[in-house]
Write a structure and sequence with these properties.
The structure holds two protein chains of two kinds.
Chain A: H1 2-36, H2 38-41, H3 44-56, H4 60-96, E1 99-102, H5 110-118, E2 123-137, E3 161-167, H6 169-175, H7 178-182, E4 208-212, H8 213-219, E5 226-236, E6 242-257, H9 262-267, E7 268-272, H10 273-280, E8 290-295, H11 300-317, E9 327-330, H12 331-334, H13 336-374, H14 376-384, H15 389-420, H16 422-433, H17 440-443, H18 454-480, H19 484-490
Parallel strand pairs in A: 3-7, 4-6
Antiparallel strand pairs in A: 1-8, 1-9, 2-3, 2-5, 2-8, 4-7, 5-6
Helix pairs in contact in A: 1-18, 3-15, 4-13, 4-15, 4-18, 5-11, 13-18, 14-19, 15-18
Chain B: E1 6-17, E2 20-32, E3 37-41, H1 48-55, E4 63-68, E5 71-72, H2 78-88, E6 89-93, H3 104-113, H4 118-138, H5 154-167, E7 172-176, H6 184-201, E8 204-209, H7 212-216, E9 220-225, E10 228-229
Helix pairs in contact in B: 3-4, 3-5, 4-5, 5-6
Classes of the chains: A alpha+beta, B alpha/beta.
């Protein structure tokens, strides 16, 4: 009963909020349309005079330019960030699969886990992984230096500390972009894995490691080079406590890989699953730590529902003492922090740019107010000719509306155009000044990405129109309150 | 004698200086017949311009009534008074009050735009333009249609103002010192022009002036002193 009451209350609050929001948005739209209608349905002299005032007073272009720049910046910067976010999402999705099961306990055998997950009708493929870490150093060389300040997870190839992924190449290729990463056109022929069908096959009796292209090039590694993987493993002592033990494994470089995400390439290397198991968990011949999963239907709703079902299946398969282990996450949940940080940056930029637009609106307010002061005489004669206070308001409101409409329209058009040709703009700026506005290697991109979101354009347009009309209304209202006699006597 | 087109009945007007009322008009009674030329004569500060503004519904009387065609109009709404000003009254001011951004033709055309919406005007735009051109030709400015006020002489500017006042075909012209800013020769030309159009159209004409000679050219003179009619 209590749950029903809570649900009803929740529904009521939700409905009230939705209705209030609809009313506010509706009222705003109505006011915008009403104000905009001055140009069509308002008195002719208002439109006529507004256009002449604007054409003969270049100072009004300052306000228009301010609105244009504000809208332009909002469109360009947010389109760029949305593009980057979209590309990064694609990269992360390709590296993670649709779902991933992590924290899988060592006692759960892979065939049992695989069967439990594949039992779900939406699961198309699974791939086991072991995860470890360490340094990869060429014999006789020092480990690479620490990364430069400011270079973080996005940057590839200069992190000395690596994550080592133990994978089954055939299974991995079914779930992630593993196969494409080995065939990326950017990989020079001499750095490609010689046997792409089995890239982690041992060479010269040594286990093979696949290294990110950027790291290989930075460290001058070639296929067939020997490297030493230095790490530690936990060994149980006589009292049953785990103590770390140094481990060094000689490996041979099998080839380069290149995903679309520089951070992934720079921070990870691939080893064969069996090699990892042999070195780290020889006693658990069937253990895995992580399972990546590809789904038949990876749409948002199906993804979440499947993740929940897989979570239950995983717990059943790992149950011990009435408790299940391991966590199943969607690819978005797995990368939530990283995606949220980019989204957060985009949000902050939106706020900064909206402040710029508000400043532009104040600029417009100042120029319009100045015009009202200068046009006191005109207000008097318009009243004498039969103009009403409302009509006089319309003249100056129409000025503001024209400024806002043209400013917003030009801002939207130039903003979309700039976003589409951002790469050409970047190249032109770099050619002219030597400054690279958007270093592509940071994101492993071929060109500056963009994503023009219609909803964002609509939001920017509505915000610009609302701000523009509001600041137009204030001086227009002041004009309507001028005493026509004062203005008629004033000259 | 026909019914007056415009009447002021016991009109008073006070302005306030702080809490102190300053009487400017003190019980003015006035009637203007159709086709009549009436001069309001008085020294500076006599209340001539204030009376003109009250008659033209630009200002409200403190007490008393303003009637057009026998109907009281001073208590009507702002919009109704504005409509009445547009349809019935044409103003001519000493300082012309032309809009500097507009050409002579546009200044005159503006009058036709006052009571129509953008959409309505679209249907009458050609006729409105033709009427404005005809009116400017009538005042002798057919060759100055596309000149802005800054490019016109004082007399030409006042002719444009007269054309603007007449193009809406009002029944009453209220002129406040229309020649006060012109040399005598130009002023004479402007007065001749105004009176000839007034005669031709049978307009009621109220002329505020402190020029005795000009006032004598009107049909009737009403002298104001300290806000009251003295003759």
């Amino acid at each position: 009963m209590e749950e029903i009451v809570h649900a009803l209350l929740g529904l009521q609050v939700g409905l009230t909020t939705a209705i209030a929001l609809l009313l506010v948005v509706g009222l705003l739209l109505f006011k915008l349309l009403q104000a905009g209608s001055v140009l069509i349905a308002g008195p002719k002299y208002a439109q006529f005079l507004a256009i002449r005032y604007l054409l003969t007073r270049p100072i009004n272009l300052v306000g228009m330019l301010g609105i244009t720049v504000g809208v332009w910046a909002l469109v360009v910067v947010v389109s760029l960030f949305s593009g980057v976010l979209s590309v990064l999402e694609g990269h992360l999705h390709a590296a993670t699969g649709d779902c991933v099961a992590t924290g899988v306990p060592p006692w759960a055998p892979w065939p049992k886990l695989d069967a439990a997950l594949r039992d779900d009708a939406n699961v198309a493929a699974t791939a086991p992984r072991l995860l470890h870490y360490g340094l990869l150093v060429r014999p006789g060389h020092r480990p690479p230096p620490l990364p430069l300040p400011g270079r973080g997870a996005l940057h590839g190839g200069d992190q000395p500390f690596l994550f080592v992924l133990g994978v089954d190449p055939a299974a991995e290729a079914e779930v992630t972009g593993f196969r494409q990463w080995l065939h990326d056109p950017a990989i020079p022929p001499e750095l490609r894995a010689p046997d792409a069908s089995n890239p982690l096959a041992p060479r010269d009796g040594l286990p093979t490691v696949l290294v990110g292209l950027q790291r290989m090039q930075r460290e001058g590694l070639r296929v067939g080079d020997r490297v030493v993987w230095t790490t530690a493993r936990l060994v149980p002592d006589s009292q049953g406590n785990a103590t770390p033990e140094k481990l060094q494994v000689e490996l041979v470089v099998g080839g380069a890989f290149k995903s679309a995400h520089g951070g992934f390439d720079g921070n990870n290397v691939f080893l064969a699953l069996d090699t990892m198991r042999g070195q780290l968990a020889a006693d658990d011949a069937q253990s895995v730590q992580e399972i990546v999963v590809r789904l038949h239907d990876a749409g948002d709703a199906a993804l979440l529902a499947t993740a929940e079902r897989l979570q239950r299946a995983l717990h059943r398969a790992t149950e011990r003492m009435d408790r299940g282990y391991g966590t199943v996450m969607t690819w978005r949940e797995k990368n939530a922090n990283f995606l949220a940080s980019v989204e957060h940056q985009r949000g902050l930029l939106k706020i900064v740019l909206i402040v710029i637009m508000v400043i532009a609106a104040f600029l417009m307010l100042a120029t319009l107010s100045m015009m009202v002061t200068e046009k006191t005489g005109d207000i008097g004669i318009l009243t004498a000719m039969g103009g009403t206070p409302r009509g006089v308001t319309s003249v100056f409101l129409a000025c503001g509306i024209v400024i806002t409409l043209v400013g917003t329209g030009v801002g939207l058009a130039t903003g979309c155009l700039t976003a589409v040709y951002l790469e050409e703009v970047r190249q032109a700026v770099r050619w002219a000044t030597g400054v690279d506005l958007f270093p592509l290697d940071v994101y492993n991109l071929d060109r500056v990405p963009y994503s023009i979101e219609p909803l964002w354009l609509l939001q920017v347009t509505l915000a610009a129109l609302a701000v523009g009309f509001l600041v137009s209304f204030l001086p227009a209202r002041r004009a309507s309150r001028q005493d026509p006699l004062v203005s008629l006597r004033g000259i | 004698m026909s019914a007056p087109v415009l009447e002021a009945i016991a009109v008073t007007k006070d302005y306030r200086l702080g809490k102190q009322p300053i009487p400017v008009l003190r019980g003015i009674d006035l009637a203007v017949q159709p086709g009549e030329k009436l001069a309001l004569l008085g020294t500076s500060g006599a209340g001539k311009s204030t009376l003109l503004h009250v008659l033209g519904l630009l200002d409200a009387p403190t007490t008393g009534e303003i009637r057009y065609d026998g109907e009281r109009v001073d208590q009507r709404s702002v919009a109704e008074r504005a409509r009445l000003r547009h349809r019935q009254i044409g103003f001519v001011f000493q300082f012309y009050h032309l809009i500097p951004e507009l050409t002579a033709l546009q200044n005159v055309m503006l009058s036709g735009m006052m009571a129509t919406s953008v959409l309505q005007y679209w249907g009458v735009r050609k006729a409105a333009k033709a009427a404005a051109i005809a009116m400017l030709e009538k005042v002798g400015l057919g060759h100055r249609l596309h000149h802005r006020p800054a490019e016109l002489s004082g007399g030409e500017r006042q002719r444009v103002a007269i054309a603007r006042a007449l193009v809406a075909e009002p029944r009453v012209i209220l002129a406040d010192e229309p020649t006060g800013n012109l040399d005598s020769q130009t002023a004479n030309g402007v007065v001749e022009l105004m009176f000839s159009i007034q005669r031709e159209r049978g307009l009621a004409f109220v002329l505020v002036t402190h020029d005795e000679n000009l006032a004598r050219r009107c049909d009737r003179i009403v002298r104001l002193r300290d806000g009251a009619v003295v003759t």
